[in-house]
Write a structure and sequence with these properties.
four-stranded antiparallel beta sheet; 0% helix; 282 residues; mainly beta; Beta-galactosidase, Chain A, domain 5
Length: 282
């Protein structure tokens, strides 16, 4: 396992080869904007979720009559990736790891590219085999909120009626809880996270801004190609995860067929699909 650093004079970003996981995002003033991990709360920083974000019912899925095991958030975060390419301001990591739950020939690349005060994160999945498969992908960056999230709010790109789908373990019910009505701002509180994450399946916005009432620093996450937004922290922790996902966690009564699950992409042989989100630091 090694650490790779890219910078452009405005941002300095470090990524480790274990999971191709972001480890640091420092702004032009040297301020760390990414959670630095604390086992008392959560030791990770920004795992890549593949080939599922969240969990399947009973941790299995079915494809063409065969059932495959798959743990919550998949396996890509647990393997060492290869540094495939590095140049000023960009780095590309790749994994082709085979797993009992995903025995397909594929390549997954994580491409980190700096552009001014923005970090583009591309997850590119390529089918190298002769049979199609289904997959999804999600991001899980934890942004530093050292003063506590009670001093922060999220501003959505558009006014939203935010509906949370409550989690029961790794799954969600069909019920919803209204957090805001026709409003672009969600004041943050640890009360939201006493059970687990917020699951926002119906957001119109394709970007959110994390801002504090204690300082002028802001951070914007754009996710034009993701339909689900997850928010998560642990009570008392100094971070907020802003997680664009392509899929949502399974419903408690979901069937097992992966082709029935919203957000999962079918990848034909030799086809490639890329999903991008962008972190802009201000």
């Amino acid at each position: 396992m090694s650490l790779v650093t890219i910078e452009n004079g405005t941002l300095k970003v470090s990524i480790q080869t274990m999971g191709a996981e972001l480890q640091s995002i420092k702004d032009a003033n040297g301020v760390e904007r990414l959670w630095q991990g604390d086992p008392a709360f959560w030791a990770n920083r920004a795992p890549i979720l593949f080939p599922v974000a969240g969990g399947f019912r009973d941790d299995v899925y079915e494809l063409d009559g065969t059932r495959y095991p798959m743990p919550k958030h998949g396996f890509a975060k647990k393997v060492v990736w290869e540094l495939e390419h590095q140049a000023p301001g960009t780095a590309t990591f790749v994994t082709r790891h085979k797993d009992p739950g995903f025995p397909f020939d594929y390549a997954l690349r994580a491409v980190y590219t700096l552009e001014g005060d923005a970090l583009h994160v591309d997850y590119a999945t390529e089918n190298l085999g002769a049979v199609p498969f289904y997959f999804s992908v999600g991001a899980h960056e934890a942004y530093a909120t050292p003063e506590g999230i009670d001093h922060y709010s999220l501003v959505f790109d558009e006014p939203e009626t935010l509906l949370n789908s409550p989690l029961v373990g790794n799954l969600t019910t069909h019920d919803t809880v209204t957090l805001t009505e026709n409003c672009d701002t969600l004041p943050l509180t640890y009360d939201y996270f006493k059970v687990d994450a917020l699951v926002l399946r119906t957001v119109k916005s394709r970007g959110v801004t994390l801002k504090s009432d204690l300082h002028p620093r802001k951070l914007h996450v754009a996710f034009p190609q993701h339909d689900v937004l997850m928010l998560w922290t642990k009570p008392g922790a100094g971070y907020l995860c802003i997680e664009p996902w392509c899929n949502a966690p399974d419903y408690v009564d979901a069937d097992y067929r992966i082709d029935h699950k919203p957000g999962f992409m079918r990848l034909a042989p030799q086809e490639k699909i890329t999903r991008r989100h962008t972190i802009t630091v201000r």
